[in-house]
Amino acid sequence: MIVRISTEGQYDVSEEDAAGLNELDNQAVASCEASDEQAFRDVFGRLLEYVRTKGHPVGEDELVGSDIILPPPDVSLEEAKKEFQGEGLIPG
Amino acid sequence: MPGLSGRMSTVIKAKISKLLDRAEDPSETLEYSYQKQIELLQNVKKGIADVVTSKKRLQLQEEKYQQQVVKLDTQARQALAAGNEELARTALERKSALQTELQSLDSQIAQLEQQQEQMTASEQKLRSKIEQFRSKKEVIKAQYSAAEAQVRISEAATGVGEEMADVGLAMQRALDKTENMRARAGAVQELEAAGTFEDLTQLGSGEDDIDRQLKALSSTTEVDAELAKMKAELGTGGGSQGELGAGAQAAGGEGAGASQEQAQ
């Protein structure tokens, strides 16, 4: 699964690791719905770290579209609310 | 995939498929797509140049503030030497407000610097992706049937398109930030011109009333401390400043009289 962190780059995350991603995605939705800035910062930070550590950076010479596009690391809570809603970035 | 980034990639995909539908001959599509990418790369370069320009503008602003700080400090000293403590206090208050502004300007410039570096790296990456597209284009043209070629072109074009949109997003965010900084710098200048630096804290976001009062308190304390230091340096504080007293009359009589009473 190809995951892009906006303004940063693409990562290749294995299907098994994608489950953990989904869990964090759901938590991000919850924190956005609660308008809890601190909780959101925390979970979004962990989400980014997860992608960076579990995923492998996609090579510069590869041309692939992403399955998931995460907002940029400096996203504000207000902006994030538009993204993390309902099912989140990953359905389920 | 809802939300901003979802919408964004949908828009790109729509644009690309429209592009692909237009031409029946895949090699024509490929050439057109490649030309478009080169064109967009030029826009990215222009965008980076805009960020650099904004940064330079903020740096100029910073220099101006620094000069003003020095000037206000000198003015405070002159006012105090002339025995006009009120005027000295006003100058020091403005200096303190400007210094706060300088600090935030400083960190904003550092942020921009970092963004500029990131964008330059992104541009580099985009360039190599386009280069990749160019070589792939030749392979597709040479090896695949029209139907197969359509699919492969679509894949490759999506990859480049997404990279392009991402650099665009990074650029937009950097420019939005500089715009905010410039608006803020402009507002500070207006306030300064109007001489109402008391309202400066209202420019900051998310501060409540208590924050503001606390801030005002600490800045008053700083000003008091600095005032005391200046007095000590000038050897005032007692009544023993004959020649300075003469300067006081030249600088503005009644303020000086009032402040000397206060000082004793």
Quote the distance from N terminus to C terminus of chain B: 72 Å
Q: Give the overall shape of chain A.
A: globular
Biggest sheet: strand arrangement of chain A = 3-2-1-4
Instruction: Report the radius of gyration of chain B as a whole number of Å.
Output: 30 Å
- Based on helices, strands and strand pairing, what is the structural class of chain A? alpha+beta
Strand content of chain A: 5-15%
Q: End-to-end span of chain A in angstroms? A: 15 Å
Helical content class of chain A? 40-55%
**Biggest sheet of chain B, open or closed, and with what strands and sense?**
none
Largest sheet of chain A: 4 strands, mixed
Instruction: Count the DSSP helices of chain B.
Output: 7
How many individual β-strands of chain A? 4
**Average predicted confidence as pLDDT of chain A:** 87
Pair of chains with the largest interface and how many residues each contributes = A-B, 25 and 27 residues
Range of helix content of chain B: over 70%
SSE run of chain A: EEHHEEH
Compute the gyration radius of chain A: what is it? 13 Å
Oligomer designation: heterodimer
Q: Would you tell me the overall average pLDDT of chain B?
A: 71
Q: Please count the beta strands of chain B (DSSP E, at least 2 residues each).
A: 0
- Give the helix/strand class of chain B: mainly alpha
Notable characteristics:
heterodimer, A: 92 residues, alpha+beta, four-stranded mixed sheet, B: 264 residues, mainly alpha, 7 helices, disordered N terminus, disordered C terminus
